[in-house]
């Protein structure tokens, strides 16, 4: 009996430990973005804040993807240096200018298992990148999915 096999390629996550790369809206090779300290979040840092701007910002969808029993708690947030476009019927975040602002939600991802579920949901059409999340009057170093 034939059983089809579905292969899902995860969204790439390759955070540099010695530069800001990859960061939304910033070319980390430029001298003004060179760092004296290790950038955060780190590749394997948990918990880690994520910025969502599309279907993952819907609590029920996020609950399904993460296989949570309870509804997840999201907080209103925004990021800068990004622009939201459409990829078919889905929103897609791309690099933007310093003045560009995208509104959405932030959520704290507690484990690598949960992050891998998010990366599987977004597939290899997206890349995990660093971003500065603004929420509740605070600036939080976090991650998001860039198209």
The overall pLDDT average reads 93
Please list the strands of the largest sheet in the order they lie side by side: 2-6-3-7-8
Distance between the termini: 38 Å
Q: Supply the CATH architecture.
A: Roll
Could you walk me through the main structural features you see in this protein, from its secondary elements to its overall organization?
The chain is mainly beta. Helix content is 13%, strand content 35%. The protein has a five-stranded mixed barrel with strand order 2-6-3-7-8. The chain has a two-stranded antiparallel sheet with strand order 4-5. A hairpin with a 2-residue loop joins strand 7 and strand 8. The termini are far apart. The mean pLDDT is 93.
Report a brief summary of the structure.
Belongs to the gamma-glutamylcyclotransferase family. Residues 50-141 form the Gamma-glutamylcyclotransferase AIG2-like domain. The chain is mainly beta.
Index terms:
Hypothetical upf0131 protein ytfp; two-stranded antiparallel sheet; 2 helices; AIG2-like
Q: What's the topology here?
A:
Layout: E1 12-13, E2 48-52, H1 59-66, E3 75-80, E4 82-87, E5 90-95, E6 101-109, H2 112-122, E7 127-135, E8 138-146
Parallel strand pairs: 1-7, 2-8
Antiparallel strand pairs: 2-6, 3-6, 3-7, 4-5, 7-8
């Amino acid at each position: 009996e034939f059983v089809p096999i579905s292969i899902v390629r995860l969204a790439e996550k390759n955070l540099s430990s010695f530069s800001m790369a990859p960061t939304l809206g910033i070319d980390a090779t430029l001298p003004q973005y060179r760092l004296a300290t290790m950038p955060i979040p780190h590749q394997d840092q948990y918990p880690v804040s994520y910025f969502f701007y599309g279907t993952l910002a819907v609590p029920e969808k996020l609950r399904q993807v993460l296989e949570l029993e309870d509804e997840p708690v999201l907080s209103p947030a925004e990021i800068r240096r990004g622009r939201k476009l459409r990829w078919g019927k889905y929103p897609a975040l791309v690099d933007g200018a310093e003045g560009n602002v995208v509104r959405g939600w932030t959520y704290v991802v507690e484990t690598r298992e949960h992050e891998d579920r998010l990366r599987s949901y977004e597939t290899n059409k997206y890349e995990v990148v660093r971003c500065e999340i603004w929420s509740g009057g605070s600036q939080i170093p976090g991650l998001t999915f860039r198209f």
